């Protein structure tokens, strides 16, 4: 018997900006999220794997300039880009990830290639890029990822001496629903397919003004990304160091398996209790094998969308 498929995506969590009251500013985000959920949903309804659906959704998010993975990724302290991505298949716990890459156009494809190759789970820097070239993945100059908005954001972060910016939306001349200066730019997707299998994928430029060589939670299996058919598929966004320390994505699955918690109880405990206890800001998206979807965040907003079966996709930005 077929399972009813489900998919959820996120485009980062953050603080509501001064433009939040402008419905027009939000429209483009809702439309982009809806289109991406629909594409993943259509693939799942045709019987494709959850793994294919999450990779497609994350690729589309990487390519969409509204979100900050891929094109539009944030700058490091040295005004360079270092991208991280991961993907995990819940049926057999295969996983692949890349970290600190700056020439791979779609890092999630490289993560998928690492997964398919199977020899390793995480490749970083020049080695990851050599692997991507071997696999004939599309390579670009690092300037492909740069945008003027991100450069200004770096300048503000340098001036303030911060890694994650911490200023109000008005100072930022905000024109986006979530304050770009305080938004975590990661994108991600989780899915349950017709065959009852789960998968998760996450891709990011990391955090503005991060030290060169810094790796966040997104490409770390168990921290920012995890999927296990026995429990759930999870993709996180937020202050990566805390998500790593909390083993956030794995903790959701562990709570379900060992403590018998529901998806809702487990995701709520991680996002509303464990992470805030150590100063962790952000959120996550998760789906379990029954098709339950939870999208909790402890910030003011998180770009998100989801769909179950043939239902129309739902999208949201604020609480
Ligand atoms: N979690 C990501 C990181 O720390 C940032 C984000 O969610 O945007 O690299």
Features:
binds aspartic acid; alpha+beta; four-stranded antiparallel sheet; 319 residues; globular; eight-stranded mixed sheet; Glutamine Phosphoribosylpyrophosphate, subunit 1, domain 1
Q: Output the strand order for the largest sheet.
A: 4-3-2-6-5-1-11-12
User: Main beta sheet: strand number and arrangement?
Assistant: 8 strands, mixed
Bound molecules: aspartic acid
Order of helices and strands: EHHEEHEHHEEEEHHHEEEE
- What CATH calls the topology is Glutamine Phosphoribosylpyrophosphate, subunit 1, domain 1
β-strand amount: 15-25%
- Shape descriptor: globular
Number of strands: 12
Given helix and strand content, the structural type is alpha+beta
The top-level CATH class is Alpha Beta
From the N-terminal CA to the C-terminal CA, the straight-line distance is 36 Å
Helicity, as a percent range? 25-40%
Radius of gyration: 18 Å
Q: What is the number of helical segments per DSSP (H or I, 4+ residues)?
A: 8
The CATH homologous superfamily name equals: (Glycosyl)asparaginase
- Low-pLDDT segments: 165-173
Estimate the mean pLDDT confidence.
Answer: 91
Short summary:
The chain is of the alpha+beta class and 319 residues long.
Q: Could you walk me through the main structural features you see in this protein, from its secondary elements to its overall organization?
A:
With 319 residues, the chain is α+β, with helices and mostly antiparallel strands. The protein has one domain: (Glycosyl)asparaginase (Glutamine Phosphoribosylpyrophosphate, subunit 1, domain 1), CATH 3.60.20. It has helices spanning 23-45, 50-63, 107-117, 125-134, 148-160, 240-245, 248-259, 263-277; strands spanning 6-14, 83-89, 94-101, 122-124, 187-192, 198-204, 225-227, 232-238, 282-288, 293-294, 301-308, 314-318. Strands 4-3-2-6-5-1-11-12 form an eight-stranded mixed sheet. A four-stranded antiparallel sheet has the order 7-8-9-10. The chain is globular and about 55 Å long. Bound molecules: aspartic acid. Residues 12, 184-186, 204, 206-207, 216-218, 224, 237-238, 240, 282 line the site of aspartic acid.
């Amino acid at each position: 018997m077929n399972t009813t498929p489900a998919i959820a995506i996120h485009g980062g969590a953050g603080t509501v900006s001064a433009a939040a009251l402008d419905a027009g500013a939000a429209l483009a985000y809702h439309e982009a999220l809806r289109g991406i959920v629909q594409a993943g949903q259509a693939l799942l309804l045709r019987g494709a794997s959850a793994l294919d659906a999450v990779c497609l959704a994350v690729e589309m998010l990487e390519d969409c300039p509204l979100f900050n993975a891929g094109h539009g990724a944030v700058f490091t302290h040295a005004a360079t880009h270092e991208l991280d991505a991961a993907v995990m298949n819940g049926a057999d716990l295969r996983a692949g990830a890349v970290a600190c890459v700056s020439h791979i156009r779609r890092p999630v494809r490289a993560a998928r290639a690492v997964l398919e190759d199977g020899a390793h789970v995480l490749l970083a820097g020049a080695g990851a890029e050599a692997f991507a070239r071997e696999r004939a993945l599309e390579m670009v100059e690092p300037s492909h990822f740069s945008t003027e908005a991100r450069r200004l954001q770096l300048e503000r972060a340098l001036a303030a001496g911060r890694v994650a910016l911490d200023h109000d939306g008005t100072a930022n001349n905000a024109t986006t629903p979530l304050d770009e200066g305080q938004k975590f730019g990661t994108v991600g997707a989780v899915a349950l397919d017709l065959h009852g299998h789960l998968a998760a994928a996450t891709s990011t430029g990391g955090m503005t003004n991060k030290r060169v060589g810094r790796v966040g939670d997104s490409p770390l299996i168990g921290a920012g990304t995890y999927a296990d058919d026995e429990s759930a598929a999870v993709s996180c966004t937020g202050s990566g160091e805390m998500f790593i320390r909390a083993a956030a994505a794995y903790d959701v699955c562990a709570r379900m398996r060992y403590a018998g918690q529901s998806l809702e109880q487990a995701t709520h405990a991680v996002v509303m209790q464990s992470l805030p206890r150590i100063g962790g800001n952000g959120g996550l998206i998760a789906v379990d094998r029954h098709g339950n979807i939870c999208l909790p965040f402890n910030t003011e907003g998180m770009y998100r969308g989801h769909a179950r079966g043939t239902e129309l996709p739902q999208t949201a930005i604020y609480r």
